[in-house]
Amino acid sequence: MAVVTTSETPSPESPELTHLRHDGTAAMVDVSAKAVTTREATATGTVGTTPEVMALLGSGGLPKGDALAVARVAGILGAKKTPDLVPLCHPLPISKVTVDFELGDSSVTILATVKTRGVTGVEMEALTAVSVAALSVYDMIKAVDKHAVISGIQVLAKSGGKSGDWVVDAEAPAVGPAPASGRAAGTGAP
């Protein structure tokens, strides 16, 4: 197995791997020289369940109580705790976190937006907010649906920083890897 290090010359198909040291071991990226900008990211995910559970979820009739209120607070806490959960993430001064829900016939879609003024983006914080909110919804409904499914967690948009703004291509699949041509508007990759 070959070890790719930052000493190799990156190609367009293989960008420089900045989370590796020259010996191939993982390292936190040095962001000290990056400019402070306002940065924002939005992520989404879905919890699939049954129409009967969705009726309970919408009416607040679940055995454990108001699942959406608990999931909203859990998602906000998840965004704030991201560097504690994901080892190479930088602690950031989070300015704002919103967690919202769209109720469907047999699923709840979670949307989280995180904002900061800092030297690195908040995509991981938005993804963590969605993930923790989804886990909380699952925890709140598992007494009435042990087969609920969490899926489709992905970044929808980001703004700020050197790489600029990025929005998921509406034509791209909702889950799975990005096509070779890229899903992002403007940059070709998230």
Q: What percent of residues adopt helix (DSSP H or I)?
A: 10-25%
Mean pLDDT: 84
Radius of gyration: 19 Å
**How far is it from the N-terminal to the C-terminal residue, by CA?**
27 Å
Query: Could you state the order of secondary-structure elements as H and E?
Result: EHHHEEHEE
Which percent band covers the strand fraction? Answer: 15-25%
How many beta-strand elements? 5
* Largest β-sheet summary: 5 strands, antiparallel
Helix-and-strand structural type: alpha+beta
How is this structure best described in words?
Helices cover 24% and strands 25% of the residues. It has helices spanning 51-59, 67-80, 82-85, 123-141; strands spanning 37-48, 94-103, 107-118, 149-159, 166-167. The two termini are 27 Å apart. The longest helix has 19 residues, at 123-141. The relative contact order is 0.20. The chain contains four helices and five strands. β4 (149-159) and β5 (166-167) form a beta hairpin.
Structure at a glance:
The chain has 190 residues and is an alpha+beta fold. It has helices spanning 51-59, 67-80, 82-85, 123-141; strands at residues 37-48, 94-103, 107-118, 149-159, 166-167. Helix 2 packs antiparallel against helix 4 (123-141).
